[in-house]
Write a structure and sequence with these properties.
Largest sheet: 3 strands, parallel
Oligomer: single chain
Radius of gyration: 34 Å
Number of helices: 13
Order of helices and strands: HHHHHHHHEHEHHHHE
Strand order of the largest sheet: 1-2-3
Number of domains: 2
Distance between the termini: 52 Å
Helix content: 55-70%
Structural class: mainly alpha
Shape: elongated
């Protein structure tokens, strides 16, 4: 690690350590803000630009170092600057450390947007993770601002309502209750939006038919295909199963069932050879490999009816012989 990076790391460690040793977190609480609100409002009124600068510096330090109090800082932004200016200030400086994020591959911008939109993901964690990717700084900034704007407005609005509390009865005011209802409902709405975006993206490039002939098309009548078709038919779905060869696939005809049947015969003969290990004085076996293979084929024939076309058609599956491709 270079000397400059070591200095940066040391400075960060000292800053975080100092924050906790000096108990600076006591100043980033809602109680402390309420006790100093009058003085803060007066200072902001006298020095608006300087207040924005001070707020910016504190916000950048808290978020960049992942210190506790970032949520309170967002609420305070709404309380001291109002809904409009609070949203602008918080949105503008919320990602001041975006320059350290390098990017993300493939669908990075969309993925970043969804992470920003859903408040379940701490934004400082996203900042740290995105620093390991290849997302361009400008893209990171633009997508972050768009993704965080709805949540920023909700939090800043809650801050403006907190600033209006004068008495204990003000806690039950419709405006404050409405603001906190928005805080509670927003994650659910954001999740629905994310799900909608994912669905739209998955179906992009495909034209939705006006009607569907089938609920499910299964290609291949092997063990996996048969299970899928069986479960779908059990829940009354319209299912078509396409198999070009024998029903049951490799598992029934050439794989699992024949091999395990053959292994069972081999294991039996092996036990006979080791009869003395089992306390048996004498044991012998006379066999013909053709007879063993006939046994294997017999076991396959016993299972075939369970995987047959007739059985699955009785279950309601439309079975087609041939090749298929989606």
């Amino acid at each position: 690690m270079s000397k400059s990076k070591l200095i940066i790391v040391a400075a960060v460690v000292l800053a975080i350590t100092g924050f906790f040793i000096l108990d600076l977190g006591q100043y980033l609480t809602l109680d402390y803000f309420k006790s100093q609100q009058a003085a803060i409002d007066r200072y902001v009124g006298e020095h608006p630009l300087l207040s924005v600068g001070i707020y910016f510096v504190i916000y950048v330090v808290v978020t960049a170092l992942s210190l506790p109090g970032a949520a309170i800082m967002t609420l305070v932004g709404g309380a001291i600057f109002g809904l409009l200016w609070g949203t602008i200030v918080v949105s503008r400086f919320q990602d001041a450390m975006a320059s350290i994020n390098a990017g993300i591959r493939r669908d990075g911008p969309l993925y970043l947007f969804m992470l920003r939109l859903v408040p379940a993901f701490p934004f400082f964690v996203i900042n740290l993770v995105m620093a390991l990717t290849s997302l361009r700084t400008l893209t990171f900034f633009v997508v972050s601002q768009i993704g965080m704007l709805p949540g920023t407005i909700v939090y800043v609005n809650a801050g403006t309502q907190i600033a209006q509390i004068k008495t204990a009865s003000g806690i039950l005011s419709p405006e404050l209750l409405g603001a906190f209802v928005l805080l509670g409902v927003f994650p659910l709405i954001a999740r629905r939006i994310v799900d909608w975006i994912k669905n739209r993206r998955a179906l992009k490039g495909w034209t939705k038919p006006s009607s569907f002939d089938r609920n499910l098309v299964v290609i291949g009548g092997g063990s996996g295909g048969l299970v899928c078709a069986y479960i779908a038919a059990a829940v009354k779905a319209k299912v078509t199963l396409v198999e070009k060869n024998k029903m049951g696939g490799d598992c029934l005809n050439t794989g699992c069932v024949p091999s395990k049947s053959l292994i069972r015969s081999a294991k039996f003969l092996h036990h006979i050879e080791r009869h003395r290990d089992y306390g048996v004085r004498s044991a012998a076996a006379d066999f013909d490999f053709a007879d063993i293979m006939e046994r294997v084929r017999g076991i396959v024939r016993q299972i075939e009816p369970h995987d047959s076309v007739e059985r699955f058609e009785q279950l309601g599956v439309d079975v087609r012989q041939g090749r298929a491709r989606i």
